[in-house]
Design brief:
This protein has 299 residues and is α+β, with helices and mostly antiparallel strands. The protein is built from 8 helices and 5 strands, in the order H-H-H-H-E-E-E-E-E-H-H-H-H. 33% of the residues lie in helices and 10% in strands.
Length: 299
């Protein structure tokens, strides 16, 4: 190589070791290409073994994209014609390629599920990665689902910061309560079950003891009210909510948590003949006032 340079009158000036910055545009282009390769591999959730396919696809699309000067694409400068970009697909998207007739079976699907990883035959065919055989094949007839860049049947984890579902909360809550209440017969004497205290109407609603409507866990409709091992929070009926919570909401909540109340009255007559009839009368009056107020607003 040195003799070739001498005959041509070329003076060789090598760059300093470990200084890629001196290569100028070449190194900057390599950095741009590898950043794109890293991005599409991460987006498609494919392995690093497909880095060569990803790099060829990145170069293919870059040669058909606009440059910073805005004059023309690299393809147009080299071939004197505008490129055809109708064949471009989202890299790594799920696709279904038609199998050749020699590979089709009578009772088997005629298509192969894979991932688009490149272009072939000047953009008239596609390079398709088959996850089952871990091979890349060239197919012309494909149908790509560009809205999905994950393998069929694969779902992603919930985004960071999203609250877990209610099942996870209930499991954690019951586990904590089990750890604090479970013990051996020898370590702590058994205590008789006692009903929950009845709050006064002046107490805030949020301080009402948690109850459950599940008969197996204790609740207003259960014969073992107040004796559930894992109590739940009782949700107030929405019809008692208004702009400002009135006395009816607290009255009904107090009635629900009262030891004397075992069942919810089904009729007005039953409600006004109970020991806690004054609470139900107050709740009915508050409900009527709320309905009248809402009717007035809607006019």
């Amino acid at each position: 190589m040195q003799e070739f340079y001498s005959r041509r009158g070329i003076r060789l000036e090598p760059t300093a070791a470990h200084t890629p910055q001196q290569n100028g545009k070449a190194e900057r282009l390599n950095r741009t290409l590898m950043e794109r390769v890293r991005s599409i591999l991460a987006e498609a959730e494919l392995g690093e073994e497909l880095w060569a396919e990803a790099l060829m696809a990145v170069v293919y699309t870059r040669n058909r994209g606009p440059t910073s000067d805005g004059r023309a694409t690299p393809f147009e400068l080299g071939h004197d014609k505008r490129p055809d970009v109708a064949c471009l697909r989202v890299w790594g998207s799920v696709e279904y390629a038609l199998k050749p007739k020699g590979q089709q079976r009578k009772l088997q699907p005629k298509t192969m599920a894979g991932r688009v990883v490149g272009y072939a035959a000047g953009g008239h065919a596609y390079r398709v990665y088959n996850p089952a055989s871990r091979k890349v094949v060239v197919r012309r007839n494909i149908v790509a689902d560009e809205t999905s860049v994950r393998a069929p049947g694969k779902t992603s984890a919930p985004p960071a910061g999203m609250a877990p579902d209610s099942g996870a909360d209930m499991t954690a809550e019951t586990d904590d309560q089990s750890n604090t209440t479970t013990g051996t017969p020898d370590s702590a004497p058994s205590q008789p079950d006692s009903p929950p205290p009845t709050p006064s109407p002046s107490e805030p609603v949020d301080q009402v003891p948690k109850t459950s409507s599940d008969p197996t866990r204790g609740g207003p409709n259960s014969s073992t009210f107040g004796r559930g091992r894992y109590p739940e929070r009782l949700r107030r009926p929405k019809r008692f909510f208004d702009d400002e919570p009135g006395a009816a909401s607290q009255a009904v909540m107090t009635a629900f948590t009262s030891e004397a109340l075992r069942t919810v009255p089904a009729t007005v007559t039953e409600a006004i003949t109970r020991p806690d009839a004054h609470l139900w009368r107050e709740a009915m009056q508050d409900e009527l006032r709320s309905l009248a107020k809402k009717t007035t607003r809607g006019r």
